[in-house]
């Protein structure tokens, strides 16, 4: 059983993607935990769906609660979805297991959070955008790139934000499979579709009905 821990500050869209994938039997052998640095949508969702969760106090100068909680839950992968830079000791202790998802084709627009990279890409007239899954190191958005996707800016901003979220979830799953060297998604096939490296699971099983369930979660 692969244990994926989400460090959360917001509504937990990526965590909800993984949970819905488990419910729909699209990924197997995975269990989830949420560790939040505040009361937030991720915690409310976890409470309502019997997902192990913790709310802790965390600052780069106050790391005891995080280190204690991580030692307790023993994660295989940590997804860093909270709005803080991780301290160097945590990065060192979990090197190779800390993963981040960024909404730009890094190294472009590194250091921006949330949808800010998408907005910046539109304002700068970029022709292509996409998500990046990368390992976390001591610098901001500078860790080894694991996986990316790309799509053209030919749609309104709001539609790009939704498409970025969807492709980002698949890129995150792809990156985690790369780190673990194992398959989590059940339906295997080669998907091109402007992913690098190409997905080795069937993108089409994550259909519109699936994404609507994630959106409504």
Automatic annotation (TrEMBL):
Domain of life according to the entry: Bacteria
Pathway stated in the Swiss-Prot or TrEMBL entry: Purine metabolism; IMP biosynthesis via de novo pathway; N(2)-formyl-N(1)-(5-phospho-D-ribosyl)glycinamide from N(1)-(5-phospho-D-ribosyl)glycinamide (10-formyl THF route): step 1/1
Keywords in alphabetical order: Purine biosynthesis, Transferase
Enzyme Commission number: 2.1.2.2
Domain Formyl transferase N-terminal as annotated: residue spans: 3-155
Annotated PANTHER family: PHOSPHORIBOSYLGLYCINAMIDE FORMYLTRANSFERASE (PTHR43369:SF2)
Protein name: phosphoribosylglycinamide formyltransferase 1
Taxonomic source organism: Methylomonas rapida
Taxon lineage: Bacteria, Pseudomonadati, Pseudomonadota, Gammaproteobacteria, Methylococcales
């Amino acid at each position: 059983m692969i244990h994926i821990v989400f460090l959360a500050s917001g509504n937990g869209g990526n965590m909800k993607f993984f949970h819905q994938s488990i419910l729909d039997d699209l990924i197997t052998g995975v269990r989830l935990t949420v560790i939040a640095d505040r009361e937030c949508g991720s915690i409310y969702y976890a409470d309502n769906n019997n997902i192990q969760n913790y709310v802790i106090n965390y600052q780069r100068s106050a790391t005891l609660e995080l280190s204690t909680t991580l030692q307790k839950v023993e994660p295989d992968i940590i997804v860093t979805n909270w709005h803080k830079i991780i301290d160097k000791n945590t990065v060192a202790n979990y090197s190779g297991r800390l993963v981040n998802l960024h909404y730009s084709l890094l190294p472009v627009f590194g250091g921006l959070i949330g949808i800010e990279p998408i907005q910046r890409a539109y304002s700068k007239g970029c022709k292509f955008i996409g998500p990046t899954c990368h390992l976390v190191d001591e610098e901001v958005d500078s860790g080894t790139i694991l996986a990316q996707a790309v799509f053209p800016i030919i749609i309104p901003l709001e539609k790009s934000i939704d498409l970025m979220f969807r492709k980002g979830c698949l890129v995150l799953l792809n990156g985690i499979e790369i780190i673990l060297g194992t398959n989590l998604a059940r339906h295997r096939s080669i998907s091109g579709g402007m992913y690098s490296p190409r997905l080795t699971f069937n993108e089409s099983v994550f259909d519109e009905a699936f994404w609507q369930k994630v959106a409504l979660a």
